[in-house]
Amino acid sequence: MDLTYIPEDLSSCPKLGNKSCPPTNRPFQVRVIMYSIMTGAMVITIFGNLVIMISISHFKQLHSPTNFLILSMATTDFLLGFVIMPYSMVRSVESCWYFGEGFCKFHASFDMMLSLTSIFHLCSIAIDRFYAVCYPLHYTTTMTTSMIKRLLAFCWSAPALFSFGLVLSEANVSGMQSYEILVACFNFCALTFNKFWGTILFTTCFFTPGSIMVGIYGKIFIVSKRHARVISSMPETTKEEVKKNLSKKKDRKAAKTLGIVMGVFLACWLPCFLAVLIDPYLDYSTPIIILDLLVWLGYFNSTCNPLIHGFFYPWFRRALKYIVKERHTVLLQKTHSAQGTKTMNSPDLWNSAEVQFCFALINNSCPRNMRSVLSASVMYFVMIGAIVMTILGNLVVIVAITHFKQLHTPTNFLILSMATTDFLLSCVVMPFSMIRSIESCWYFGDLFCKVHSCCDIMLCTTSIFHLCFISVDRYYAVCDPLHYVTKITIPVIELFLLISWSIPIFFAFGLVFSELNIIGAEDFVAAIDCTGLCVLIFNKFWGVMASFIAFFLPGTVMVGIYIHIFTVARKHAKQIGMGSMMKQVGPESKMKASSKKESKATKTLSIVMGVFVLCWLPFFLLTITDPFINFTTPEDLYNIFLWLGYFNSTFNPIIYGMFYPWFRKALRMIVTGMIFRPDSSTLSLFLEHA
Predict the structure, then answer these.
(1) Cα 66 to Cα 58: distance, rounded to the nearest angstrom
(2) How far apart are CA 440 and CA 369, in angstroms?
(3) Model pLDDT, residue 207
(4) Which residues, 6 or more positions from 495, have their beta carbon under 8 angstroms from its beta carbon?
(5) Residue 318 phi, psi (nearest 5)
(6) Alpha helix locations (H) across 583-634?
(7) CA-to-CA distance for 455 and 444, rounded, in angstroms?
(8) How far is CA 330 from the centre of its chain?
(9) Could you give the CA distance from residue 179 to residue 495 in angstroms, rounded to a whole number?
(10) What is the crossing angle of helices 85-94 and 28-58, to 10°?
(11) C-alpha span between 350 and 315 (Å, rounded)
């Protein structure tokens, strides 16, 4: 629901210009953060409530009075996320309304309508739960389909008539001269209430139904505890007979969950409705940032509802799995129960003990490794975060080095190419590996499995080849600075890049498509073969060879080069220190001594190399040892080592940000839009002789 802040001094309308909105004074970075958070909330609101709508609409087992009310409330939240929140986001961040006066009134009316519709739904759900728990014998005759239809008609029609009637008649702002001046000056769009309608709205539409809900749920929990005590104290012979006259455990649990939904709703919207009540008596002096926070706290309630359903409703989690895998359209699931055979139009959404398969219609399907919703959610959150950071971080490196001419150096061209490798890994490899690691299934076909495996090997090998050539570049920059510009030329860099990309491509694609890596391990491959499996297996020979060629040989070369570099760098530092003490530093000794900038760059790149070795060493050790222990490494341990290697691509931009001032300055210019200036490519990111 919208609120507005009316400035104290509205006498300068001509200065500000008629129908002109004062611009926001928020920094660009703050606006980016606000847009990110609000967009994330919108996406969760839209897709989370869409899952609830599809689940209850499609699965016949969920066709119950309570769930029809939940379905309607999810529709309310979905509309709020789809129709209201995007425009409110722009207005909150930019402090301006760009969408016209007519749509402003529609937006304000629809916003208030959906907020009131939600609380009316919660009130109706409380009544439904009251009969289910307190009067279970009369529940089916009282809460009929026709009764639910009447409740839904009231929940939608009363808020619609109230909201559109109030806003279009402008009764809510009658007698507010300051509001009329504000609209005349700024064409401002926000929902404001005078003292009378602020009190009416708070009392009638929030406080009264809220008090009713709290009273009903208080009664429900008292009755639930009494029923639970009665059942626990009864002997087994009479317990079943008594249970018929008492509420079901499932109904009591549903009441508890819906009570949490109600509590979250009241906690989210209470501050906003209190502001509606109090602000007119404070002469509308509440700061606009506080009002925006209160409005968005209310909006976030629509984001929280699907998350609450996900945590407390097993049927929601199970239905979500069916929706994601699209199995509900084809699979016939037979279950032996008192109700007979069920189809997937009515799956047993509460029974999760059955074995799950990647492709249920295929006889040779791989079984799925079942994870709890909480662990799967945490894994998705961490991995998606790593993917996003890898994409954006390496994209900044690519844009910065490509755009700014001051960064066009041999070392930076190698860094640019390595950032491209990490960027491709995050776009092409990591998303599919994420799904495979969490779901323990491969849904993308055998051919793409081979392509994915090839790209995975190729990009990892390409990274270490880049690091190896960067160490060669640093060796000449520090140990032989007089000949650096003549030896590390652009053609030499092009040769380095050609080797770094071509050899891994031929090695990876040649090895996987020729299937040399599984010669001698055919029996094991045949034993584990099933539809939905995509793993890269190495026999003993290629496990050792691949690790030696792609990791240990270049890694040893790098470590040796950097040790020599640091030995020379320390010797140069001693020479410079002695020369400055004796005040006899000649041109020759100065040219032999490496510059401070080169030494710092070498230190940073050695950290990059060290992080790479630490991240990938466990995986390559596993590649060597696994064939010798008959491939008995647990799947989860393999995935941990693999993703530890992937995280190296996430760490690289973070290391650049910590140790390279030019990276931070370039990032600032990209985020603030300075990069779009015509002369931005020639701007200085650092002092040439720093």
Answers:
(1) 15
(2) 6
(3) 83
(4) none
(5) -70, -40
(6) 587-592, 596-625
(7) 15
(8) 30
(9) 70
(10) 170
(11) 6
Contact between residue 469 and residue 414 where contact means Cβ atoms under 8 Å apart: yes
Q: Which distant-in-sequence residues (6+ apart) come within 8 Å of 9 by Cβ?
A: none
In the prediction, which pLDDT does 199 show? 86
β-partners of residue 357 are: 367
CATH number of 26-329: 1.20.1070.10
Q: Which residues of the chain have pLDDT under 50?
A: 5-19, 186, 239, 241-247, 326-347, 350-353, 583-585, 588-594, 689-690
Place of tokens 């209160």: 294
Q: Residue 568 has which token pair?
A: 């020379």
pLDDT computed for residue 499 by the predictor: 93
Nearest partner of 129 among 75, 71, 65, judged by Cα: 65
Supply φ then ψ for residue 171, to 5 degrees.
-65, -30
- In the chain, where the domains are located: 26-329, 383-682
Burial classification of residue 62, based on how many CB atoms lie within 10 Å of its CB (0-12 exposed, 13-18 middle, 19 or more buried): buried
Q: What is the CA radius of gyration of the chain?
A: 33
| C-alpha–C-alpha distance, residues 69 and 494, integer Å | 65
**Tokens representing 224?**
């639930």
pLDDT, position 574? 73
DSSP strand E in 436-567: where?
A: none
Residues 6+ apart with CB under 8 A from 682: 405, 406
Q: How far apart are CA 619 and CA 640, in angstroms?
A: 9
- β-bridge mates for residue 367, sequence order: 357
Topology annotation, domain 383-682: Rhopdopsin 7-helix transmembrane proteins (1.20.1070)
- The token duo for 108 is 């304000």
**Residue 653's closest CA among 402, 382, 420?**
420
